[in-house]
Amino acid sequence: MNDNYDYIFKVIIIGDDSCGKTSLVNRFVDKDSPMEEQATIGVDFTTKYYTNTNGKKIKLYLWDTAGQETFRSVVQLYYKNLAGAIFVFDVTNQKTFRNLNYWIEELQTKNDNETPVPMILLANKIDKTGQRLVSRKDAEAFARENGMLYEEISVLNNTNTVAALSRLFEKIYDEFIEKDKKCTGIRAKLIPVKQKSFLSRFCLFF
Q1: Cα(147)–Cα(137) distance, rounded to whole angstroms?
Q2: CB 155, CB 20: distance < 8 Å
Q3: What is 82-106 written as a DSSP string?
Q4: Which DSSP string do the residues of 2-55 spell out, in sequence order?
Q5: Exposed e or buried b for every residue in 185-201, given b needs 16+ CB within 10 A?
């Protein structure tokens, strides 16, 4: 297996159940992956390689969390040592939008980075145009108030999924690598001592 990479980013996917979080991850990892509606039990882990606009190869650790209340005590254990967070809600379900306040508070309370991690809010199921209950205007305003990137997607049609996630990964790189900031959710590949820089300060997250 080819395990050549420059950095590892640990990213978490958060939101209520049935928002399409697992399907989003599956689409990103394999665009031909069939849509599955099975609920995540606890936390699922997936890896994916991503080459950014600087030509750096990123190994993504994607943690897909369960949205059911039953698993919340388990999920909060994974809020530490993050490089970024993906929040997903269903535009046809107002409750999933209202509950974003809870998820954001949970992340901010449990996350241990000195610098807040980049976050993106994804409005899923925009293919259901006649059933939409959360307006783009309201969702964009919410994202802006919480310092989040914002994108609208359809996991079902695979619309804007890769481009939306890429925005977050580029933001993480720019925020921490380019600006020389410490992040416990990023790990650089081991490099010769003579080439060590600020990257040696990054903490492992396992």
Answers
A1: 15
A2: yes
A3: -SEEEEEEETT-HHHHHTHHHHHHH
A4: ----SEEEEEEEE--TTSSHHHHHHHHH-TTPPP--PPP-SEEEEEEEEE-TTS
A5: bbbbeeeeeeeeeebee
Q: Cβ atoms within 10 A of the Cβ of 109, count?
A: 9
Average pLDDT over residues 87-115: 89
Q: Whose CA is closest to 28, among 168, 170, 171, 155?
A: 155
For the cut 60, the answer to whether the pLDDT of residue 39 exceeds it is no
Q: Looking at the predicted structure, is the pLDDT value of residue 155 above 90? A: yes
- Residue with tokens 């209520």, as numbered in its chain: 16
Q: How many helices (H) and strands (E) does the chain have?
A: 6, 7
- Per-residue pLDDT of 50-97, as tens digits, reads 999 999 999 999 998 764 455 455 556 778 889 999 999 999 999 999
- Determine the residue type at 203: C
